[in-house]
Amino acid sequence: MTRAAARTAALELSAGHASGEVGQRASAFNRTASLAGCSNAASTEIRLLVVTLAALVLCTDYASAQTPTSASAAAHSSLQSDNSQREQWNYSASVYAYFVPDSKDYLQPTFTADRDWLHFEARYNYEGLDTGSVWFGYNLSGGETLAWEFAPLLGGVFGSTTGIAPGYKGTLIWRKLRLYSEGEYVIDTAGTSGTFFYNWSELTLAPAE
């Protein structure tokens, strides 16, 4: 073999070797790119899964946080309503006309005001003619089947009769029956002649509401 032929053969072998290396490198690059693509796809799926789970957790926490808040708001509103009702004043007024044969006719007005436990009452011509009285009491109540209300009272009497008077007002309600009673013991501070006990009770039946 001549030197020219030997050189040609060597060049061909070198070119073939280089071509093989390039092919191997290209194949390795393709495998690496394929693996990278698979890895990127898997990473994307994992990210989407994590984001979805995080969104579900946040929604669950928000829903669980909202329910107690709504319940707390309702309880707070109910408490405010109860407190508002207790703090309100309730008033009542009445006037009775008495026509007494062979005596002086007269009017007997009564005014009451209640707020929570406090009871206030003012009367005129009740303990006696031309006599007024002012009362303070403590409201109590309870019961369901047999409902009751009771207020111990302490009053001051002035006018034709002067003195102090412990008393009471009470009511019992059972179904359609209602028993009401009030009483007082007037102690005449000017003398014993004006001291007396007074009671008024009534029982009523309400066939219809």
Features:
41% strand; 209 residues; globular; 1 helix; single chain; 9 strands; alpha+beta; disordered N terminus; 2 domains; nine-stranded antiparallel beta sheet
Derived from helix and strand composition plus strand pairing, the structural class reads alpha+beta
Rounded mean pLDDT is 76
- Strand/helix succession: HEEEEEEEEE
What is the molecular shape? globular
Q: Strand-residue fraction?
A: 35-45%
Counted beta strands: 9
Oligomer status = single chain
First and last CA, distance: 135 Å
Low-confidence stretches: 2-42, 62-69
How many H/I helical runs?
1
Q: What is Rg? A: 50 Å
The helix content, as a percent range, equals 40-55%
Number of domains: 2
Give a short account of the largest sheet.
Answer: 9 strands, antiparallel
Explain this structure.
This protein has 209 residues and is an alpha+beta fold. It has two domains: 1-88; 90-205, no CATH class. The protein is 41% helix and 41% strand. It is built from one helix and nine strands. Strands 1, 2, 3, 4, 5, 6, 7, 8 and 9 form a nine-stranded antiparallel beta sheet that branches. A hairpin with a 7-residue loop joins strand 1 (90-98) and strand 2. The longest helix is centred in the first third of the chain and has 85 residues, at 3-87. The chain is globular, with a radius of gyration of 50 Å. The N and C termini lie far apart (135 Å).
Question: Short summary of the structure?
Answer:
The chain is of the alpha+beta class and 209 residues long. The chain has one helix spanning 3-87; strands at 90-98, 106-115, 118-124, 131-138, 140-142, 146-159, 163-174, 177-188, 196-205. It is globular and about 50 Å long.
